[in-house]
Amino acid sequence: MKNFIFLLILATIFSCSKKIDKKDLLGVWYYDFKENDNNNLSHIIIKNDSVTLIDYLYVVKKGPYVIKNDTITINLKNEILRKKINITDTSIILNSTSFIGPYEDDNIKHKEYNLVSFNSERKLTAEELSEYQGSFFLLKENDSIKIKRWNKFVSFEEYIDSTPIHFEKIGHIALLGENFTLNDIKTVFFEMYYYNFGGICLVTKTNFHNYKYDVYYIRTDVWQIEVDKYLKNNKKEKREMVIFPEAFSREKFISLNNPFLLKIKSKNDFTKLEKRDCKLNSV
I want to staple 45 with a disulfide (CB 3.0 to 4.6 A). Which of 51, 52, 185, 228 is the partner? Predict the structure, then answer.
């Protein structure tokens, strides 16, 4: 009988330790880095009625959450995340990934943006993408093309100035927002060419469940006659950049090199890019 009571007390203590009080979760939690950890989040913001998840590239996803026993369920816009949750004095643990905190919420508004949602055969994790020189959002707002770096709108020049001197991989990551047209992308290519970007890795879709993101490697070659026209129309000063001969036109290039020509008329045609070997090249 005494043994039974002792076991019952232990069971009660154990069950109590598993109970999570929502108020203990409120605040900001920062990722506690660990080698070979299966994670894409840099930090988490937990409020009474919602969770904001922010990944290495500053992709923001939000949704309401429910805690039942030792499981937290987060209802994102196009995903449902279910993770085992545990809490200590200084951290929360989601599955096996630790986040340190809680820190006071600074009440910065973290806006969630939708990407174009193109599927790609090429998948990279957020951690792999974060190894490049830098990343930014390409957004379309009020018929205007905007670049967002972290939580701030910037120019291409400001973006370049914000990238680190030391990095693991050469290249830039662009997260492509919805409502972009091919002409919008062409305009972006002119800007990139002006600042000596040789190419980018376009992220078109994210997945916070398996941490694999859909990507396309894109070169940003443009024709010199179109560059000159763009500089004139936008009253940009000429600067040091790769200059092609004026005779190096689209028509002459095609006649001399007989390249593979790909016509893209809709978003479904982007799958044709998967059949070509494209490599990311940047200056």
Answer: 52
